[in-house]
Amino acid sequence: MRGHGLAAQCFFVIALVSKGITAQSESCVGRCDDPLDTSFPCQCNHACTNHGDCCDDYLTVCDSASSCAGKCGSGYDPGLSCQCNSECGQHGNCCPDYDTECGGSGGDGSCEGKCGSAYDPDLPCECNSECGQHGNCCPDYDTECGGGGGGSLSDADLIELSEMLISLDTNNAGGMIDINWGCTTNNGNPQDCSELPLFASVDPAVESLSTFAAFTALFDNYKPSPSEVEEQTEEELAEEARFLEEVTATEVMRTTYQFLVDRGVFSGSESEWKDYLNTIWFKMYDRARQTLGSSGFEHVFLGECCKGGDVGGFHNWWHYQYLEKLGEINYLGHWERASFGEEMALGGGISFTFTWNGGSKPYGSMWLGTSPELEMALYSVCFMSRPNKKCHVTLMGQDVYIQTWTESAGGATLVGSSYPDWSL
C-alpha cells in the first residue's frame, strides 16, 4: 500500500509539471526570440509572423510593436520588424495580424459578401478567380465562393500536355549525355559502390543552348545554406529576369501558357504569366525559420545544404553535372532509372543517393537531359493543379509522378519543393 501511495504522489507531481509545460508551450512567456522548436505547437520568434504559427500572446509578450492596429496602409519602412502595407507580401514580412486588421472590406480577410470582386493587388487576400494563380485567396474562399472559380486539369489533360511538351522540347539534351550508372544501391545507403562519376560525358554544345546558358549564369547567385540571408544584387536580379525571358520564349512554355488559358486555369496575359512564374519560383522566404534565405528555384534547381547534415532539394541534372565536374559531388549509386524514348533519346531520370558540400542526399531524384523549361513547365503545372500531391504525367510513354510541396509566405503560395518519381 505504501508503494502505491508513493506512485500516486509521483504521478500527481508529473501531471502537474506536464500541465505546466503544456500551458507554457502555448504561451510566449519566457520564450521570446527562441529558435524554432517543433516540439511546441506555436513559436515566439519573428519568423512565426511569416509562417502563421505564432503563439496567441506573441504580440503582447514579445513584440507589441508588431501589430497593424492603426497602421494599415502606412509606408514601407525597412527599419521595422514587420509591415502593414501591400508591399509586405512581396518581402514576406507582413505583421501577424495584417490580414485581420487590414483585410479590405470589413478588415476581416474574409470573402463574405465579396465573391467575384475585382482583383485588387493592394488587398492581402482576394475573392475572385484570379486569386488561385496569384496564390492569395482568402482563407474562406473555397467555402464562401465555391472554390476554384476557374478551370481545372483532368488526369487526361496532364498526360496530353506532358506528351505535347516533350515533343516540343527543342533544347532537349538527351542525346548529348552519357551516363555511368554504376552500382544499384538502396535509399539512404552511405556506402560508395560507384567508382566513377554519374556523368561520363556531356557535349559542350549544351551550354550554348539559350536556356541552359541563362540557367548557368544563376549558379553563383545563391548561398547553399537556407539559414543565410540572400542579398541579391541588381546584376543577379537581372540574370533571373533574363532566365525567365529565355524560358517563357520557348515553345514549351508558350504551349504551357496557352493550354492553361484554354482550360481556364490561368486567366492573365503572357506578361502576367511570366510575373506569376517569377513569384512562385523566385520570391524569397525563410525555409530555415530564421531569415529570407531560400526560394523554390534555389531549392529545386540548385539545391541547399545542409539542414541536419542532409542536402535539401537539388533535383536538376545540369547543375549536378557542373558541380560533379568540379569534384564537389560524389555519386554513390542508384535504385531506379527512367527513359524517355529508346536509349534515353529525349532524356530520362534517376533515383539515387549522393553527397555534396559535406552533406548527404539519402533519397534523390532528377531528370536527365531535359531542358530547364520542360522541368519548370511541368513542375509549375503540377504546382497549380495538384499541389501537395503526386501529379501523374507521361513522357514518351514513361510514367512520371511529380510531387509538389507548397510554401506560404507573405500571403502568397510559393513552390516549396518539386521532384520526379518514376513509380508510385
List keywords for this structure.
424 residues; Factor Xa Inhibitor; globular; disordered N terminus; 3-stranded antiparallel β-sheet; alpha+beta
Domain count: 3
User: How would you state the average pLDDT, rounded?
Assistant: 82
Tally of alpha and pi helices: 15
Secondary-structure element pattern, one letter each: HHHHHHHHEEHHHHHEEHEEEHEEE
Count the strands? Answer: 10
Strand content: 15-25%
Span between N and C termini? Answer: 57 Å
Biggest sheet, open or closed, and with what strands and sense?
Answer: 3 strands, antiparallel
How large, in whole angstroms, is the Cα Rg? 24 Å
Return the structural class: alpha+beta
Q: What would the principal axes of the Cα set say about the shape?
A: globular
Q: What share of residues is helical?
A: 25-40%
- Runs with pLDDT <50, length 5+? 1-24
Strand line-up in the sheet with most strands: 5-6-7
Overview of this structure, please?
The protein folds into three domains: 75 residues, no CATH class; 48 residues, Factor Xa Inhibitor (Irregular), CATH 4.10.410.20; 267 residues, no CATH class. The N terminus is likely disordered. The strands form four sheets. The protein has a three-stranded antiparallel beta sheet. Strands 8-9-10 form a three-stranded antiparallel beta sheet. With 424 residues, the protein is of the alpha+beta class. The relative contact order is 0.12.
